[in-house]
Amino acid sequence: MILSRHEFLSEVEQIKKWREMLIATNDEHERRTLVEDTAGKILLACWREVKSEIVQVLREVVDRYITDEVAEDDGVHENEAMKEDERIHRSARLWKIGSVFRLAIHCIPSDNPNPLQRIIDDAMDGISKHQLLLSERAALSSPSNEAGHALRRK
Q: Residue 13 and which of 35, 56, 71, 88 are 20 to 30 A apart at CA?
């Protein structure tokens, strides 16, 4: 998913807020969650832009391969001698290559995702470790939480 300008600026504002909170807090656990949330947002934004560039270049390469465009000093020219059935054969070969890539993606083991992948996945899913920490603390300090009171008394 490519972010619109408004969405991107909103993400940047969120990162700025987290940075200000990070500077203002002395609690190490809270600092770690803010760093993780910020890193996740930044990594996700970078990944989206890289992915967008890859897709754009890949489309251009595929189009040129299928139409047999030739790059020359005065621009790109389509090879008019290429017959329609050759274009169809090239399209079919590209489809097969794409199928191999799609199958390979599903072969990647995901039983133990690496920490960076987890951080990016959390950012993509809108999960904020900092917000989870604050919610957990609020739940522990609520009057209805006897377990939290028992822990604080010890």
A: 56
